[in-house]
Amino acid sequence: MNQAHSGEKTVFRARFSSITDTDICTAMVRLGEPDHNEALSVDARQELDLRIGCAFTRFQTKYFQGKYGNLDSSLISFGPCQTPTLGFCVERHDKIQSFKPETYWVLQAKVDADKDRSLLLDWDRVRVFDREIAQMFLNMTKLEKEAQVETMSRKEKAKQRPLALNTVEMLRVASSSLGMGPQHAMQTAERLYTQGYISYPRTETTHYPESFDLKGPLRQQANHPYWADTVKRLLAEGINRPRKGHDAGDHPPITPMKSATEAELGGEAWRLYEYITRHFIATVSHDCKYLQSTISFRIGPERFTCTGKTVISPGFTEIMPWQSVPLEESLPTCQRGDTFAVAEVKMLEKQTSPPDYLTEAELITLMEKHGIGTDASIPVHINNICQRNYVVVESGRRLKPTNLGIVLVHGYYKIDAELVLPTIRSAVEKQLNLIAQGKADYRQVLGHTLDVFKRKFHYFVDSIAGMDELMEVSFSPLAATGKPLSRCGKCHRFMKYIQAKPSRLHCSHCDETYTLPQNGTIKLYKELRCPLDDFELVLWSSGSRGKSYPLCPYCSNHPPFRDMKKGTGCNECTHPTCQHSLSMLGIGQCVECESGVLVLDPTSGPKWRVACNRCNVVAHCFENAHRVRVSADTCSTCEAALLDVDFNKARSPLPGDGTQHTGCVFCDPVFQELVELKHAASCHPMHRGPGRRQGRGRGRGRRPAGKPGTRRPKDKMSALAAYFV
């Protein structure tokens, strides 16, 4: 492996399907070279999905953002697989909405089998949609006193054991029977795999190769408290070879690799592991055999049927009891010509019912059938349409489209139906599979597909008004939504605050929209105005345990200084004289991130806070102090700005009933005992990571670690000072 040819590194691929000693050692002995064609196929899929998705998503998000007040337009995404997935859900919704129930009638007969038991008979015509015709059949049969047996048959039938388990079937069962979403089920299966409990969970194969050791995993379950008896009997009597399924040439079917208990795994991991194990045991068990008896009766001119089933051998249903043949009453023994007394014949009026919304399991089946996504990406696409608020998951894990999801799909149909139909993506997947097989050229497939979607994109841009017409019907314009909050600096009229994501302020007079920080609350800030543009300031807050800062709506969207980024507040503004700016309220370098500055929150009293303007560090200090101000002087030791604090006389920590003190929050012994470092409970995403700009003004630079003469932390130094040093 370390031998280089012409200066190039030699790379091998280890192929294994479970994290066990045997599989890993075997894989290392049988190293092979990576498949170049498979890698090209993956590269093509990634580039196509990224370029197509980004182009459509960016355009439609920007187009509809700022047009409608009650539309969650923070991200209106498009995806070559995601959008057809949504299309299946909306197609079912449209069928439900357009469904018109029809009334039909059925005849139901009941005969006496003996003194204590009666049989319910099914009408061979099933149903009729004309009441007069149904009434005619009823009149012809209700006068009859006896039902005559025409035929009596008994047939031995078998219910086949399941095919070996692949990813799609596991996701279907997890959703329909275990109540687990596909994405969550996949994550749980991956954890079980990395912990060595099951084999690799991403596979399309449902066929075990002839060389696969089936008895090895089965022996692992021989002492399990739930199914030990079944496993021991199979090992003693001999296992049944699994049914021949589909061999996709990837990994073997999902198989339990070692025994585990409910106490060991707990919760949903155990439920999924239990299903995988029971399914595997069922694949090597015998088929379920049962006897089906059918009696055909004639009552007057009409025929009726009664069916019963009796289990002969439970087979695999012993380990999968939910698959067992339903228990039915055994039918009496009879022969042609026998008669039974008719207890009653009646006519029932019923109505056809609309289909229900798609379940996740049904959606997975449709995606697999039409070639939308792979076994690994199917749960991601379903999760995406849920997170984008295109569908909501209702009881029974049914997916109901939202107004936004419905309008999008109808808009795609109106402009270009191929954007939402599964046909074009299915054709692309076939081409990608040909690349993996070495039968198609990577660059030709990539170039042709991009050219097709480029033309579709330009037509979509030119025709977007068609989708906008549908949006206008379902959503309200900005001017008609929101509530007045703060005054515009241009026209001095009130701007409306729109809470729907992305939250923003809209001035209907100027027809201007100003984006606000997300994931927090917005309120007016003391009717104070920005000295640069005369806009009223607003206060953004992430809650009582978080951070808050004022901001100017105009400056936040149009930064007035080069070192300000779009979307920032007054705590990052470098205006030299504004009382709300970083220059006036900044204290010193953040104790955790490299680029943030700790800024005094002037609105936090009497529970005063100092917060970083970049990350989520918050320092609580000087509780119940009357006033806290940032001084013009700086600390001689660390160069941080000093704080002037007026304490409450009854609770002052100062000696001799003193109430006023000026000092450094990092170095002053009095202040060190009054500062507690915490992290904000929630924070705007743009403040979670470090930026690039350093703090400016009045010596608010970073304190040099280990600089001669600097003060080291004492035993009782606060967490803030300890972090800082």
Overall pLDDT, averaged? 86
Strand proportion: 15-25%
Total E-strand runs: 23
CATH topology of the largest domain: Topoisomerase I, domain 2
Task: Give unreliable regions as ranges.
Answer: 682-725
End-to-end gap: 47 Å
Overall geometry comes to elongated
Name of the CATH first level of the largest domain:
Mainly Alpha
Can you tag this structure with a few keywords?
single chain, 725 residues, alpha+beta, Topoisomerase I, domain 2, Topoisomerase I, domain 4, 6-stranded antiparallel beta barrel, 5-stranded antiparallel sheet, 31% helix, elongated, DNA topoisomerase
Task: Tell me what you see in this structure.
The chain is an alpha+beta fold and 725 residues long. It folds into 5 domains: 38-96 and 359-474, Topoisomerase I, domain 2; 103-160 and 289-351, Topoisomerase I, domain 3; 167-285, Topoisomerase I, domain 4, CATH 1.10.290.10; 478-575; 585-681, no CATH class. Helix content is 31%, strand content 21%. The protein has 20 helices and 23 strands. Strands 1-2-5-4-3-6 form a 6-stranded antiparallel β-barrel. The chain has a 5-stranded antiparallel β-sheet with strand order 16-17-18-19-23. A hairpin with a 7-residue loop joins strand 16 and strand 17 (597-601). Helix 2 packs antiparallel against helix 14, helix 3 (82-98) crosses helix 13 (403-415) and helix 6 crosses helix 10. Mean pLDDT is 86; it is low at 682-725.
Write the layout of secondary structure elements.
Elements (H helix, E strand, L loop, with lengths): L20 H9 L6 H29 L17 H17 L4 E10 L5 E6 L7 H11 L4 E14 L7 H10 L5 H13 L20 H6 L7 H10 L24 H4 L1 H17 L4 E12 L2 E12 L25 E13 L8 H11 L7 H10 L3 E4 L3 E4 L1 H13 L6 H15 L5 H21 L1 H11 L8 E5 L6 E5 L5 E4 L4 E4 L5 E9 L6 E6 L6 E4 L1 H5 L24 H4 E4 L7 E5 L7 E4 L4 E5 L5 E8 L6 E6 L13 E4 L5 H4 L2 E5 L39 H6 L1
Antiparallel strand pairs: 1-2, 1-6, 2-5, 3-4, 3-6, 4-5, 7-8, 9-10, 10-11, 11-12, 13-14, 14-15, 16-17, 17-18, 18-19, 19-23, 20-21, 21-22
